[in-house]
Amino acid sequence: MTLLKNLRGVAMIYIPYVVLERLKEYRKILLNLDCEYVTSEEIAKLAGVSSDLVRRDFMYLKINGQKKKGYNRIALLTELDETFAVKRNLNIIVVGGNRLGQALVTYDGFSSCGVRVVAIFDNNPENAGKFVEDLVILSLEPDILRRVIKRFSVSIAAVCVLPKDAQRVVDLLVENGIVGIWNFTPVKLAVPENVIVVDADLTSSLLMLKRLVDTKVFQKSEASNAYTSQE
Amino acid sequence: MTLLKNLRGVAMIYIPYVVLERLKEYRKILLNLDCEYVTSEEIAKLAGVSSDLVRRDFMYLKINGQKKKGYNRIALLTELDETFAVKRNLNIIVVGGNRLGQALVTYDGFSSCGVRVVAIFDNNPENAGKFVEDLVILSLEPDILRRVIKRFSVSIAAVCVLPKDAQRVVDLLVENGIVGIWNFTPVKLAVPENVIVVDADLTSSLLMLKRLVDTKVFQKSEASNAYTSQE
């Protein structure tokens, strides 16, 4: 297991992306349970994976289960919150003053995990000066951008501009110190190796829902058939 | 392997949620590659999992790799598109006429995967009648809701209402035939067993980005140290 130390001097274990995805899923499952202890078998069943995989994933956390009892649910959640730094405050900027950008500025869910939008930019100078709640839309100029990034220690930007502008805007952000791009555009972005892009992928979570509904609809009709045949 | 048939009579294989999550990830990776054949080892490396797991996941698809050559990339993508029914048209409704709801109505990325927002509802009667692009905001009344759902064969609704209204709105949707809830509220929704909820989870993809940036920032500084020490 590779040990890293981040810029704040906190030791971090390197965790592969796909493992992180599963840990995120386990966290959701644990939040939904209401018990003191939980076994890897129980989590595995709810997540649709093998209990062996769950135990292997948990080896990335600083926690051990107890024989028979399993894991303490709250301790496990605390470890997972730590992994995703849920408790640490994070300042982000939004680029794109359109409806999606405005929606991010006013999104309810961020406050519960310490995320704050400190500025909103637009690459169309005509929109600069307009208000979104209590934030003024700023013009996307290197000078202003650099100052905001420095003042609020921003490392992450949500990008909601038009597809045709996306790459140019991201280049500008990266030149001025942004190292994490939260990409709401359908564009596949090119960035230097030290920059991370996470595609916000509204479409992809919708496709997942579609698939699940398709399957479930069948299971339901199968179940009602089974019911009918018992009558 | 369990074989299902969905309501359109298409045979579907039951795939656990966590496997679907990985298949989605592989699909993204394959879209990003530019080669004719790809091995499970190559995909595994990019996804951060074992090649054994990749091969096991691909057993859910109707595709076989060739010895040494690996999988035909386009054939694999076609199978994955089939799995998520990317090509099939899907009508959804949006509930909540606020900024996020409006953003969904005008989101660029949907058209590329056949998704169309056919109506937007608001539970505040005052907002009914206002326009979002070319859609009129409809009042959330059972009668109107039922007609729209029937007319456009809608099974999925995006829910963007205030947290305090979320459960009541979802109850109403479910009563009137919605079986898939795309939940943009931070509320943990209670639904009958035959209804699927997918949390859109803006916060969760942001937390993932935060984690990746934290780790990457360290790797970068480690790399530049290594560079310095070679000088």
TrEMBL record, chains A, B:
State any GO CC term.
Answer: cytoplasm
**CoA-binding domain sequence ranges:** 85-188
InterPro entries of this UniProt entry?
CoA-bd (IPR003781), NAD(P)-bd_dom_sf (IPR036291), Rex_DNA-bd_C_dom (IPR009718), Tscrpt_rep_Rex (IPR022876), WH-like_DNA-bd_sf (IPR036388), WH_DNA-bd_sf (IPR036390)
GO molecular function terms noted in the UniProt entry:
DNA binding; DNA-binding transcription factor activity
Q: Which UniProt keywords apply?
A: Cytoplasm, DNA-binding, NAD, Repressor, Transcription, Transcription regulation
Provide the protein's localization. Cytoplasm
The record's annotation in Pfam families points to: CoA_binding, Put_DNA-bind_N
Gene3D superfamilies listed in its UniProt record:
NAD(P)-binding Rossmann-like Domain, Winged helix-like DNA-binding domain superfamily/Winged helix DNA-binding domain
Q: Which GO terms describe its biological process?
A: negative regulation of DNA-templated transcription; response to redox state
Matching entries from SMART domains are given as: CoA_binding
Main role?
Answer: Modulates transcription in response to changes in cellular NADH/NAD(+) redox state.
Similarity comment: family membership: Belongs to the transcriptional regulatory Rex family.
Q: How does it assemble?
A: Homodimer.
Q: What is this protein called?
A: Redox-sensing transcriptional repressor Rex
